[in-house]
Amino acid sequence: MTEHTTATSTPTAPATTAVQEAQEIALSLADRAQVFLTGLLRPWNAYQIGIAIALFLLAWGLSILLTPRFREWLRTRENWPKWRLRLLLVIQRRLRLIFFVFLIWPTVWIMQETTWPSRSFLLSGIAQLALAWLLIALISRLITNGFLRTMVRYVGWTWATLTILGLAGDARTLLDSAAIDLGNLHLSLWLMLQAAVTLGVLFFVARFLARVTSSGLSHNEDISPSMQVLAAKFIQVSLYGAAGFIGLKAIGVDLTGLAVLSGAIGVGLGFGLQKVVSNLVSGVIILLDKSIKPGDVISLGETFGWIDTLSARYTSVVTRDGKEYLIPNEDLITGQVVNWSHTNDFVRLDIKFGTSYADDPHKVRALAIETAQNVTRVLSSKPPVCHIVGFGESSVDYVLRFWIRDPSQGLTNIRGNVYLALWDAFHTNDISIPFPQREVRLLEDAPKAAD
Questions:
Q1: How far is Cα 408 from Cα 387, in angstroms, rounded to an integer?
Q2: Does the pTM exceed 0.70?
C-alpha cells in the first residue's frame, strides 16, 4: 500500500515544488512592497514625492503653454522630409514627459551635491523611471505595426520599472517557475518572453537591413531590374533565416528537433501547397530568365498594364484605370504573355480609316503621314507610313502605322489623338469621309399590291 502511494505521488512532486516556489516569491514581493510603502511615510521621502509632483505639474503647465506654439511652428515646416516631421510630431506628443525629465534630473544632481544621498534616493529613482519611459516611447515609434508597437512599449515600461526598483530578479524567478518540461526542453513563461524579445529584435534588424539593401540595389543602374529583385529576395530570405536560427540558438532551443519538423513541412508542401510552391518556383524562374521585369508593359488576356512589383508568389500589374491585378507567377510561365517592352520600348500602332473615291489617294497618304508626325508621342525617328489596303463599297480604305516608345502612358489615348488630328486635317483640305448610303423607292403600284 505504501509503495503504491509513493508511486502515484512522485509525478506530482515537481508541480508541487513549482507552486510552492511561486507562492514564496509572491509573498516576498508582497513583503517588499509593504516595506516600500512604509518607507514612503518617512519625512524625507514625502519631501521627495512632493518635489516630484511639483515638477510634474510645472512640466504639465509648460506643455499646455507651448504645445499650441509648437504646432503652429510645425505647420510652417511642410517642406521638410517626412521622417523629420514624424519625429517632431512624436516630440510634440511627449512634451510633458520631456519637460519633466529635463526638470527632474537637474534637481536630482543639485540635491546629490547639497544633501545626503538618502535625501534624493527616491527622487533619483523617479528620474530614472521617467527617462526610461521617455526613451522606450521614442524608440517604439520606429515600429510601424500598431499592435506590436503597443506591446513593445508596455513590456519595455514594465521591465524597466522592475529593473530600476530592483525587482527584476524576483520577477524572472517567478516567470521561470511557471513552466512545463517537454523532454529536455524547460518551457517557461520567462523562456517564451525571452524568445519573443530576442526574435523580435533580430527580425526587426533583419527587416531594416533588407530594406536598406533593397534600396541600395534599386539605385544601382549596373544591375538589371529582375536581378535587383532576385538579389533583394535572396538577401531577405537569408537575413530572416539567420535571424530565426540565431534567435532560437540564443535562447537554448535544440535545433536538432527541427529535422522532424522540416520533414513534416516537406510532406505538407508535396500534398497541400503545390500551387504555392509552383508560384514560388515560377517567380524565381521569371527573375532568372528576365522574361519580364518591373516597368515592363504586358498584356495577359484582357489585362493590359505595366509591372509594378515582382513578389515571390505573384506579380503586381497596374492598369491605366488604377486597378492593380495580382497575377500568380505560374500564369506568367504557363500562359501566353505579350511583353510590349521586352527587348525595347518601341511599339507600333495601326489605325484604319477611309476616304471618298473622289479624293486623290496620293494626297490622302501624304496628308495622313504629315498629320501623324505632328502628334505628340509619335516618333519622328521611325516615320509613320500610310498604305491603301483595299477598295471598299463606299470608300478607299487606308491603314496608318506609327511608332511610340512609352506604352505605359496608354495606347487608346494616342490613337484618339491621331484620329482627331486626321479629322481636322481632312476638314481643312476638303477630304471627305464617306459612309454607306441607301435609297428606298416606292413603286406606284405598291398600295394596290398591298391590298
A1: 27
A2: no
